[in-house]
Amino acid sequence: MWDYSEKVLDHFHHPRNVGTIENPDGVGQVGALACGDALKLAFKLDEKKERIADVKFQTFGCASAIASSSALTEMIKGMTLDEASKVTNADIAKYLDGLPEQKMHCSVMGMEALEAAIANYRTGDTTVRELKDDPLVCTCFNVHESEIVEAVRINHLTTVEQVTNYTKAGGACGKCKGAIQAILDRELGNRAENGAARNAAAAPAAPVPFAELSPAKKVMAVEKVLEAEVRPSLRLDGGDIELVDVQGARIQVRFLGHCAGCMAANLTKNGLVEKKLREALGDDALEVEAI
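The structure corresponding to this sequence follows.
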């Protein structure tokens, strides 16, 4: 039995944004039923063609595949395409409070479907890569060199086993493991050469103020504080809290369980929820509204 987080189980049992979109602006499809996993993602932009107004997915796969797809759609709603294009599989896994390493390929599949959908909107093409310039490494799971390189770089992979966990390459007949190791050797060599220079020049990055975060990252930040700092206290008394929306510095929540309709709900909102969010996110301008 895989050790899934509560958020993975929630998105698996209650997936968000499942279905299709009529006349979508961008469509991306990755995987194949023969390989065990397949994902189709479509999005619709707003009237100004600036932000993602709606996004839907259809997937065939395990709990991690469904949860990763559901989480991704929630993350990118309201983003510009430039913002969405920067979402990595590591961001998806972090949003879900982690995935088993053997299931990380599900988050990679979500990232690749998004990349394909954005490429489809921008170019009209249904293919992300030029196959003649991107050798097929794993014929069993149709994994190309660029996919392995991207997984290695984003997730700092160092072994063939990790590459298999993240991309499935090498997970069947194993004939491609030598080619995977060669890619790893090359990438690790480049990493070692560039590491010293980067470390010498790098300075600790200042945290991005909450007010400057994208809408999706604001939601992620608030949800993280609620899960770690607020829900444990509420659940002790049979209550709970649900994040409804984040609009600038205003955070809308809904009290659940024994907290719903409680006479002390306003005290809880101000003395616990708002206080914890302001402290954790470093923004005294945050206001919590219970709806």
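Confidence is low (pLDDT under 50) at residues 128-132.
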